[in-house]
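Progress against Task 2.4 (sequence-to-structure conversion) is shown through the following example record, which the project officer requested during the mid-term review.
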Amino acid sequence: MSHNGVLEMTSRATSKGDILDHWFWAIPVLIIVAALSLRQIDGFPPSADEFFSMHGAGWLLDAPYSPQDVLSSLIEISPEHTPGYTLLLNQWGGFVGHHIAMARVLSIFAGLLSLALTYRLARVFVAPIAGFYALAFMAGNAFFNYYYAYARMYSLFVCLGALLLWLYLRIIDQKRAT
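Structure tokens generated for the chain above:
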């Protein structure tokens, strides 16, 4: 997109209402969060909790785990955890390798997707301007940002919660329209 295209989009947004109504302003926020998060993927040693995630997914052994091995490991080591993240981490490791930085990238992707879903939820179901404010609020949340670069399931929980809420509201909205 050319520079004139961006100016045209912003001028259209200004003529129709608030300039922050346009989806274009979500992109810099997502890029900033991604840049700040990706800087941390290899900056510190794995925490004890990350070792539990990697061990449960079979990353610390010589032979790769099958999904059944992952479930058996979870039952033995941490039965209080849901298996979704550990199974996803197991499959992710098969694609990208078993390095802690790659496990953290999975969590960062889930966190960025949760930001995008939050933006979409607020924009569609509240108001166009609410999307930007929800995105800015969530991107500035220190608690959520602290756990971006950890190989744990926290970002995925937020992402799946936002996805579930978005699907639910879409179903309700479509039923209301018919």
